[in-house]
Amino acid sequence: MPTLWFILLAFMLSMYVLLDGFDLGAGAIHLFAAKNEQERRTILRAIGPVWDGNEVWLIATGGTLFFTFPLLYASSFSGFYLPLFVVLWLLMIRGVSIELRSHIKNPIWASFWDGTFFIGSALLALVFGAALANVMRGVPLDANGSFFEPLWTNFSPSGPNPGVLDWYTILIGLLALVLLTVHGANYIVVKTTGAVNRRARRIARSLWLPLVILTAGGTIATFSLRPSLFDSFNNRPWGYIFPLLSVGGLLMLGYGHSKGWELGAFAASAATILGLMASTAFGLYPDVLPAANKANSLTIDNASASHYALVVGLVWWLIAMVLAAIYFTITYRLFRGKVRQDEAAGGY
């Protein structure tokens, strides 16, 4: 049962990155793909019907973590206290920016919220990547499952007292920023026409090579810092399908851009994200929070709730997932297709 919940949590987190990822990417290109008020409304109108629903995956993941792996929840939320508050503020800034920009018809007002929307989106992608890198690198857990990380110490990923930020976590943060920016640009290409479509297409195409370089560099750095990841894949060779999925997504992404495939490029960036997320989860298993001292690591066995709680939780989780699937199916069907310029004239 703990293994099943590990898979389900990895699935939920991947869905969040996949869906809210294109919202973050759209915000990261907002000031560059749109040059006037109507074009910026077009981008906001493209994500407006779905962005808040996409963020529910993050809340649901946190709630699920609370009753499935309570020790992991307690350790991570206390140890990552500072970065979690940064994430909270960035989420609020981003949401407020989308909702308030059209309340006053003033160009200075709109420009201010456009700037905060860009900053909140770009920094969230960077922080989420750095957070995932902290988990991959390992944290200074003690024998009681407690730790605290300052924002930075000596910028070295090794040693007994690493900080949240070091050269490795920043590298993975940049990888996440570029990947989600490409993903968001591909989504805007699918949803728009005209000048916004062309600029978004150009942004996605120009970032493909940096994305390949960062992915290769991040992979090499991750396996160098955690050689035990090789054991996870060598002991279960079928897991190599996940890195192959991300590599195939990157190759298809470049090919899709060269051929002008809108949906194909978006599907390729989605495949890259899913491949990287699945590879990360597969490499970590059975750890859920690795420690610098491996003996103190939290695993699916020592961090999980009771069997009864996991079984009861599964019943309610399945009901919730059915309702969520219905909601997302209806929402994305209602707002499918391109955003028309006349639609962008109002609302956001």
Description:
- With 348 residues, this protein is mainly alpha-helical.
- The chain has one domain.
- Helix content is 73%, strand content 1%.
- The chain contains 14 helices and two strands; from the N terminus they run αααααααααααααββα.
- It has a two-stranded antiparallel ribbon with strand order 1-2.
- Strand 1 (287-289) and strand 2 form a beta hairpin.
- It is globular, with a radius of gyration of 20 Å.
- The mean pLDDT is 91.
Features:
348 residues, mainly alpha, two-stranded antiparallel sheet, 2 strands, globular
Topology, please?
Blueprint: H1 2-28, H2 30-33, H3 37-47, H4 51-68, H5 70-79, H6 81-100, H7 107-137, H8 167-191, H9 194-206, H10 208-225, H11 228-235, H12 241-259, H13 262-284, E1 287-289, E2 298-299, H14 307-334
Antiparallel strand pairs: 1-2
Helix pairs in contact: 1-4, 1-7, 1-8, 1-13, 4-5, 4-14, 6-7, 7-8, 8-9, 8-10, 8-13, 12-13
Largest sheet: 2 strands, antiparallel
Report strand order across the widest sheet. Answer: 1-2
Helix content: over 70%
Mean pLDDT: 91
Following the backbone from N to C, one meets helices and strands in this order, namely: HHHHHHHHHHHHHEEH
Count of the domains: 1
Shape: globular
